[in-house]
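One record is set out below.
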Amino acid sequence: MGKDSGSLVSFAGPHYSNILASGILHDRYIVTVGSLATVVVWSPSWSVLAAHTEESATQSKESVARYLSVLALDETRFLVGGSDGVVSLYRFIMGDGLELLSKSTVASSYPKPVLSLAKAIQEDEPTFIVSGDSGGRLIVSTVDESDRFTVRTETTVAKCSINCLDATMQRSENGNSFRGVCGCDSGSILVFEVANRQFRRPCFAPLRRGCDSTTIDS
C-alpha cells in the first residue's frame, strides 16, 4: 500500500492486472472486477472482504476471460460481464464470503465481450437485465429471486461496441415496459424501449442531439 501526500490512496490487492469496472453493493461494499476473471469485494476502509479468480482448465492466462462490467442487483447479488460473452451471477454475504451462483452465455450465437450492464426493477417480478456487447447487440434477460438467469430476447442495433447502458421501468395501461439509453463506440447514443420483453424499433442520434425512441414494433 502506498499513500500520496494528498487524499489519493493506492492499494496492492488481489488484482494482479487491470481493474476494468467497479460498483457499489448494498450501499456499503465496493466491488471491482478485471483481468484474469478476478472479482474483489472491499470494505469502505479498503480491506479485502472476499476475492475470486476464475481458474483456466489449461492454466494459461491467455485463455482466462477478462471481467469487463459489473452490476449490483440487490443487497447481496451482482452480475459480471466477461470478454467471453458470459454473464456471471455472484452473491456476497458478510461472513459467508463470495459465491458464484451461475454463468450464462447471453448471445444466441457468436458471443462477444459484454461491455455494459443495466437493470430495470419491477415489483414482485423478475428484474430485467440489459447487456450490451462489442458486436452492437442489446440482450434482454431476467433474474428472479431463485437466482434463475433467463435470456429473453436480443437485437443488433449498431455495428460497433455498446460501451455504457442505463434503463428504467415505465408503467402504462398496456403493462410494464422499460426504456433505456446506451452509448456506442461510434460517438452516438441510442434510446430504446422494451415492451413485453420485445424490443421496439430503436433510434440513433449523434451525441450532440437528443433522440426519443419510437413505439413502432420491430
Observations:
- Confidence is low (pLDDT under 50) at residues 204-218.
